[in-house]
Amino acid sequence: MGDLYFEQIRGGLIVSCQALEDEPLHGGDTMAKMALAAEQGGAIGIRANSVHDIAAIKQATKLPIIGIIKRDYDDSEVYITPTLQEVQELMEARVDVIALDATSRPRPGGETLKELVSYMREQGQKVMADVSTIEEALYAESIGVSCISTTLSGYTHYSPQQKDPDFDLLREAVRKVKIPVIGEGRINTPEQAAFCLKLGAHAVVVGSAITRPKLITEKFAHAIRKTRDGQMH
Ligand SMILES: CC(=O)N[C@H](C=O)[C@@H](O)[C@H](O)[C@H](O)COP(=O)(O)O
Predict the structure, then answer these.
(1) Ligand 1 closest atom vs CA 210
(2) Percentage of the chain with pLDDT > 90?
(3) Which residue in 33, 221, 225, 228 has a CA-CA distance of 20 to 30 Å to 5?
(4) CA angle at 208 for the pair 205 and 212, rounded to the nearest 5°
(5) pLDDT digits (tens, 9 = 90+) for 191-210
């Protein structure tokens, strides 16, 4: 029998509604409106950062939520749900899935991915592993995560640095792991999102291209500036 959550999100669009403290749209009220707009536009799930935003989004929509807490620690590069502290905060906030960094980089305080995943499994909590390579995807599957997401390709020094989504990682992960694989990271057009499904992605997460108007504006402004500067020469 398939898991209900994964049946619900199959073939669908999950919208990541995130704005950090230094971003203009930061705040639960804004993220709740983003999530509502996403729902009205046809999203079947939300990915959100922080207990505060998650609570606000829950008031605005009934869509299932993938929760993360981004937090910086001095002794590690890992910032997406790095330690047990963030895991416990997210469990209290009650999210459908907790996503966490599942790269091979050392975690704060010497905690391990395996310990965190075991803890969540014991509590019946579904887990999304944000990976940057196929080796990380295979390891995450072997320790019992519920699904893989290509979120962190391009954000570790040893993964391909590119402006497009990492379709190669998605393709390989779909072929090699048995659990659902989600396409995520730099999916900037509807065509790219659809292509992820063609490659076998279970669902697709899109963030910046939908919910970060400052970045979207920058792309338009940059393109226009380049053309204008070209015309002036
Ligand atoms: C690398 C990292 O910190 N990714 C974060 C993970 O939650 C978010 O900032 C991204 O917006 C999300 O993964 C969706 O990706 P994109 O915004 O490229 O569609």
Answers:
(1) 19
(2) 96
(3) 33
(4) 140
(5) 999 999 999 999 999 999 99
Cα of 112 from ligand 1 centre, angstroms? 22
- Computed on alpha carbons and rounded to an integer, the radius of gyration of the chain in Å comes to 18
CA distance 81 to 97: 12
**How far apart are the CA of 67 and the centre of ligand 1, in A?**
12
Q: ipTM value of the model?
A: 0.99
User: How far apart, in whole angstroms, are the C-alpha atoms of residue 19 and residue 5?
Assistant: 25
Answer yes or no: is the C-beta of 205 below 6 A from any ligand 1 atom: yes
Report CA(156)–ligand 1 centroid distance (Å): 13
Lowest mean pLDDT, pick from 20-24, 42-46, 60-64, 88-92: 20-24
At residue 86, the pLDDT reads 98
Alpha helices per DSSP H over the chain: 4-9, 28-41, 51-60, 84-93, 113-122, 134-142, 167-176, 190-198, 208-211, 213-231
Ligand 1 atom at shortest distance from the alpha carbon of 152: 1
Distance 177 CA to ligand 1 centre (A): 22
Neighbours of 13 (CB within 10 A): 21
CA angle 173, 176, 180 (to 5 degrees): 60
